[in-house]
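Retro notes - structure team

What went well: the batch runner handled both jobs without manual restarts.
What didn't: labels got mixed up in the shared folder, which is why I'm recording both outputs here explicitly, each with its sequence directly above its tokens.

Job 1
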Amino acid sequence: MPFFFSWPLPQRCAAQVEKWKQKQVAQQMVDDSIAIILPTVHEAENLRALIPAIAALGLRDYHVLIVDDDSRDGTAEYINSKSKEGVPTLCFTRSTHGYGSAVLDGLNLASVWWSPKYYITMDADLQQDPKYIPSLVAKADDGNDVVVASKYRGGRVNYSMFRTLMSYGARFITNNLLGISVSDTTSAYRLYNKKAVSKLLNARSAPNDYSFMTWALYRVKRMKMGEVSYKFKPRIHGSSKLRKIEILRYLKTALVLRTTV
């Protein structure tokens, strides 16, 4: 898998976008709507708890877009069944794999289909409770272009030694090498407004691993950024996709950005 994948995304997604448009799977949403984007790899069991939890928030106008890397655990079938029940969910199944491209595919497709006011990205592993979504929206309504949910401001984080070292190492790299003043630079739980999403989608290339989170913050670091606290929860089902090599990828991405951007 290449470290950086090529752009633009519309060329890679055009066929399925047009197909879904013709079938009128999605309808235009009003300008104060929210698109919640969930990149997934074998998270069907967690989605069975997460989707109802999002629905229970009572958000007025929202859609949940699952960007799935060809999981064979029933993810697409479950999401399609919820859609038939009237829950605003869609599943986009890809043959391409990688976290960075999954997020950007999700942002691009949500922009094409719904053009929402806010785009929220989060993990589907139940470690990031959706109950904080209203707090992210409220912070954005205060004038922030990007809002990051920080686990370090929400109390003790029960990480393994590896995850602790990786997280603090990534924070040190991004704060000191790239000048990003966010307390939790590895948090995938974020909100972007239209201006920030446009900045990300207009990039010619992006990392396709978890260092994408650093890259994305660097792309928007001149915009107004806010943070909200959240309590990080332990994973119950499935296993983490993070590997020890990720800290080296964070460093590589930081050095590439520092020297070439």
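Job 2
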Amino acid sequence: MVKLIAPKRATGMSLNMRNSTMTERAMATLNQTLRDPKFYLVGLDLRFCYLNFDDILKLANGIKINTTLVKLDLSSNALVQCYAKFLLEELIDNTCLADLRLANNLLDDEFAVDLALLLEQNQILHTVDLSNNPISEDGGKYLL
């Protein structure tokens, strides 16, 4: 994975890791890349990677100070609210992520409440895909 990540360039780079097994080393490298200002990663696709709790923590930690990532796709990872909450907490002060894909996970009404609170504070994030999650009509009311 290290060789796939290139130093900063004018147009930025998207990284497709869809359906990959993310080892501890790979997640540590991704965390460092997200935190390093000399890399210009604008898109990250981690669909079907089935990230565990430690993976989400590393990802959230990297995103916290990242200033280039505009699109993040975590669809189809079997994410539950208690994992995703750590990611949302780091997005409160994020100034660049505009598109977050969380379709086909296990996110529920409690997550919808947490997301609504984030969206009140973060004016940059404008697209969130929550399709095919077990969010009820009651949870959806928080997002409207």
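One thing worth noting from job 2: Helices lie at 24-35, 53-65, 81-91, 109-121, 137-143.
We'll revisit the folder naming next retro.
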